[in-house]
Write a structure and sequence with these properties.
Layout lengths: L6 H14 L6 H17 L7 E4 L5 H10 L4 E5 L2 H9 L5 E5 L12 E7 L8 H11 E12 L6 H8 L1 H7 L20 H7 L2 E14 L3 H8 L4 H9 L2 H16 L9 E13 L1
Helix pairs in contact: 2-3
């Protein structure tokens, strides 16, 4: 069985997003909102357009697109019921939110003018099929706008932390489903265009953005990292008070090992944002 398409992995992802839904919009100083705004600006939605937001989450992208296309329609889809509940709580007249998988869109071919995927591609059960489905439901010349995290630009502090996650899991006898490592490269400027081209798209715009900051100590750092992905979230939340304190002590030592105090607890979240047209 392909581990990327297993039901266990999908359930793990949905559980992660259900857990972080209440803090998703405020995480890292509102980082997700900044990425959503950049994506929408580049996608340039226009009045009367029909838009599908795939992996809509709390609806950050959809709610930015809605006023721009009004009276056109925006449909946001996701598998996380908690994320969708938050998205619906801010619903506008021309925005609808539906529980649906990116790989199994129920829409007819050539339905939409624009499909958006904000920070979602690497989390889909089958990214290739999701892109092909986006192509299918787009009208001729329709646009796809995608944002992906560029993980290669993480700071030394982030690299050190994530390198310790698998040994941490083994130490606490935790066995967690994981996607293949190739997904970590989806946000590389030389990789994303290849993925889009293989799915029938022609790149028209590619840009990068970087957000970041610095945590104030190990407790704030581990709280921040708990929102960075399913693996760190599950591990950190599984630790009781004693082991959490031990982890924070290890984090302090690891940060001190970096040598330069300016490197300690510093994080970058870098993104590639692409717009492509259906061939």
């Amino acid at each position: 069985m392909n581990p990327d398409s297993s039901d266990e992995m999908v359930d793990h992802m949905v559980d992660f997003f259900d857990r972080i839904a209440p803090v998703y919009d405020t995480w890292a100083g509102g980082q997700h909102g900044r990425v959503a705004s950049r994506l929408v600006d580049l996608a340039a939605p226009a009045k009367n357009e029909q838009v599908l937001d795939v992996g809509t989450g709390t609806g950050l992208v959809a709610h930015l697109v809605g006023p721009r296309v009004n009276p056109g329609l925006v449909i946001g889809i996701d598998l996380s019921s908690n994320m969708l509940s938050i998205a619906r709580s801010r619903m506008a007249k021309n925005i609808q939110f539906v529980g649906m998988a990116a790989e199994n869109l129920v829409f007819r071919p050539a339905t939409f003018d624009l499909v958006t995927m904000g920070e979602a591609l690497a989390y889909f059960a089958d990214p290739t099929t999701a892109l092909e489905e986006a192509n299918r439901v787009l009208r001729p010349g329709g646009r796809l706008a995608v944002s992906c995290q560029r993980r290669s630009l993480s700071t030394r502090a982030q690299d050190l932390f994530f390198q310790g996650l698998v040994p941490l899991a083994r130490r606490h006898y935790l066995s967690l489903p994981r996607y293949s490592s190739e997904r970590a490269r989806f946000g590389e400027p030389e990789v994303l265009p290849q993925l889009l081209s293989a799915a029938g798209f022609e790149m028209t715009r590619l840009t990068e953005m970087v957000t970041g900051g610095r945590a104030n100590g190990a407790r704030e750092w581990t709280e921040l990292m708990a929102g960075a992905g399913p693996l760190p979230n599950t591990l950190i939340r599984a630790l009781g008070p004693r082991y959490r304190s031990e982890l924070e002590a290890e984090v302090e030592l690891a940060m001190a090992s970096l040598g330069d105090p300016d490197d300690a607890f510093r994080y970058h979240h870098s993104y590639v944002v692409a717009v492509a047209t259906k061939r």
